[in-house]
Amino acid sequence: MSISQHQLLGLPAHPTIMKFETLAIHGGTIISDEKQPVVQPITLSTTFHHREGSPTYSRAANPNRDALEQVLAMMEKGQAAAAFSSGNAAGMAVFQSLPAGSHIIAPNDMYHGMRKQLEEIFHGVLEVSFVDLTEVDNLKEAIKPETKLLWIETPSNPLLKISDIKVLSAIARSHGVKVVCDNTFATPVFQNPLMLGADLVMHSSTKYFGGHSDILGGALITKEEDTFWEKIKNVQITGGAVPSPFDCYYLTRSIKTLPYRMKGHAEHAGQIATFLAQHPKVEAVYYPGLKDHPGHQIAAGQMSGFGGMLSFLVKGGAEDADRLISHLRYFTNATSLGGVESLIERRAGVEGPDTLTPQNLVRVSVGLEHLDDLLGDLDQAFQLI
Ligand SMILES: Cc1ncc(COP(=O)(O)O)c(C=O)c1O
User: Fold this and answer.
1) CA of 283 to the centre of ligand 1 (A)
2) Does ligand 1 come within 6 angstroms of the Cβ of 92?
3) Between the N and C ends of the chain, which has fewer C-beta atoms within 10 Å?
4) What residues are paired with 90 via a beta bridge?
5) Tens of pLDDT along 251-306?
């Protein structure tokens, strides 16, 4: 769905002048029903009358997916978006659009599911160098003539490392290398990688976009509808890993509250990070909003808020971390992130034996429960270990 089509879809003539909160509410509204419901109906039909301007088949396009893709493109300030059935499917569409033999540079602490794809599914097809992208020189050293793609993830999962999108993108661009940024942790509320030089943004919309831990989804947003984007759209439509109309509807609905949810997540995460940083049973806290975080200056320059994710090292080891988690009442010991409910997990236990994550690292998705309850819960759990 191209932004130039907005007027056709009944949006205000100048969507770019809408403030972010307004965009999140109105940017995904496409009403074609002549009875003019305020909320877009869910179109379940998989096929459509052959008419000019109508979709033909729902794997290729569906009104609810059009609406979702429209608001995603607008929020990330891109020309177009493509929605997928999961974040991993979105990432995979990028890799599938590269010629065989391409070289990719990715962060050495890349989200482990994406890393697994590159190592296992694309083994023998694509070549990958995993490097620490917090050091810009590492990128310069890793670029080769076959390098086609730079993958950035900032803040990273689960170490909350910060990479300089502007500087890394400029280097990649000077070598003709495409840049993709996984913006799942920051969301477009706090960071717009396309404005900093990236060519594509990737999201697990399962996280903050969905916001309620009940929709699996992914998205790509492009700065330009170029030939690489055409390949990605072909993977989306012909490959067919697309979300259902229900999922698209619920995501578009959840996005309406994204700006306000993110403000709450970030406020709570900042306060909890400060509490943990002063706690005698905590070895280290990783939150880019803390002034002593090694990436704080870069984060402050490229983000307008520091997000709702943090991680910390419990003094002792994995057993102490597990004991702490077992005493919590409001932080559910579960994987994933970005929902209104607080989630916590010892990350290395989930990532498996080859993980680079310290064994005593606990990752927290800070929710929207009352801050006093969250701080009180952590306080009582620490007293029990
Ligand atoms: C940063 C990041 N990227 C990508 C993904 C993959 O998304 P999904 O689980 O929706 O496939 C995740 C999932 O946890 C993630 O945290």
Assistant:
1) 27
2) no
3) C
4) none
5) 999 999 999 999 999 999 999 999 999 999 999 999 999 999 999 999 999 999 99
Distance between alpha carbon 383 and the CA centroid of its chain, in Å? 34
Distance CA 159, CA 311 (A): 7
Q: Is the CB of 302 under 6 A from ligand 1?
A: no
Q: Is the CB of 87 under 6 A from ligand 1?
A: yes
Find out whether the beta carbon of 312 lies less than 6 Å from any atom of ligand 1: no
Active site residue: 65, 109, 111, 346, which one?
Answer: 111
Asked if 330 is an active-site residue, the reply is no
The model's pTM is 0.95
Gap between the Cα atoms of 21 and 63, Å rounded: 22
CA of 163 to the centre of ligand 1 (A): 18
Mean pLDDT of 161-181: 98
Residue 363 in 3-state DSSP?
Answer: strand
C-alpha triplet 243, 247, 250: angle, nearest 5°? 150
Site to probe by mutation for ligand 1, drawn from 94, 109, 111 as the one with most ligand atoms within 8 Å of Cβ, is: 111
Helix locations, the chain, DSSP H: 20-26, 63-75, 87-96, 112-116, 136-142, 165-174, 187-190, 227-234, 245-255, 258-277, 296-302, 318-326, 347-351, 371-383
Atom in ligand 1 nearest the alpha carbon of residue 184: 1
Instruction: Read off the amino acid at residue 15.
Output: P
* 111 Cα–ligand 1 center, Å: 7
DSSP calls for 228-247: HHHHHHHIIIII-----HHH
Of the candidates 268, 316, 271, which has an alpha carbon nearest to the alpha carbon of residue 290? Answer: 271
